[in-house]
Design a protein that fits this description.
Elements (H helix, E strand, L loop, with lengths): L3 H9 L11 H7 L6 E5 L5 H8 L3 E6 L2 H9 L4 H5 L1 E5 L12 E7 L5 H13 L1 E12 L20 H5 L7 E14 L5 E13 L1
Parallel strand pairs: 1-2, 1-4, 2-3, 4-5
Antiparallel strand pairs: 5-7, 6-7
The protein binds S-adenosylmethionine (SAM).
The site of S-adenosylmethionine has 18 residues, from β2.
């Protein structure tokens, strides 16, 4: 359903698909962490990876879309920041990231059908180092009751509790498990309140 061709076509359809700013929940949850190695899952046009690298993180920025990655690589950054980012063209559902390898694994708005999503999130959890952080953010299912455009497929959406349920309780401390309100504008120009599922967990 959402393979590399789908995403390449979406990125080709517009000169910029996302805002170019880092995701607000990444900024809120990660600003207090000591920089180390990070995996940005589905990095898109690269704003989160660049923000992390500007703060000293060494980032593997992975995406299934070569169009998105070309765009991300083309963003002008300092030599130091560029050196800290590896742009990686890969399908993270087809192949798992290396286990226990990252101090931070961040997945922002990865929406897949339930089975591949749960497989991916379990693999992402396995790729976090001991004492490292897993941050998963997604559109909450309640957004389907609003006027913001969302694919009319409930199975693509999840709560923070859905994500927490995938983690082995003996191995993780749940730091944040919430539905966070955010204001946005719908296609008719109305201000709408939507919700993001935010799960932040620390591996023991
Ligand atoms: C909704 S976008 C979010 C982009 C970015 N994280 C952000 O918040 O701006 C989802 C991204 O995940 C990528 N993606 C989807 N399936 C993927 C997969 N199986 N492996 C790697 N990346 C994938 C898409 O190409 C797209 O860039």
């Amino acid at each position: 359903m959402f393979d590399g061709t789908f995403w390449d076509e979406l990125y080709r359809s517009r000169s910029a698909v996302w805002s170019g700013n880092p995701n607000i929940h990444l900024v809120n949850e990660v600003s207090d962490l000591t920089p180390g190695s990070a995996l940005d899952v589905g990095c898109g046009e690269g704003a989160d990876a660049i923000w992390l690298a500007e703060r000293g993180w060494r980032v593997t920025a992975a995406d299934i879309s070569s169009v998105a990655l070309e765009r991300a690589r083309a963003v002008v950054v300092s030599v130091d920041v560029a050196r800290r980012i590896d742009w990686l063209h890969t399908d993270l559902v087809a192949g798992a990231p290396p286990s226990a390898s990252y101090d931070l694994v961040s997945a922002q708005f990865m929406h897949l059908p339930r089975a591949p999503r749960e497989l991916l999130f379990r693999r992402l959890a396995a790729s976090v180092k001991p004492q490292g952080t897993l941050l998963i953010v997604g559109h909450h299912p309640s957004d389907l009751q609003t006027t913001v455009p969302r694919p009319p497929k409930p199975e693509l959406f999840y709560t923070a509790a859905d994500v927490a349920a995938l983690l082995e309780p003996n191995n993780w401390d749940i730091i944040v498990e919430v539905s966070r309100e955010r204001s946005t504008t719908d296609p008719a120009g109305r201000i709408v309140t939507i919700h993001d599922a935010v799960l932040r967990a620390r591996r023991r």
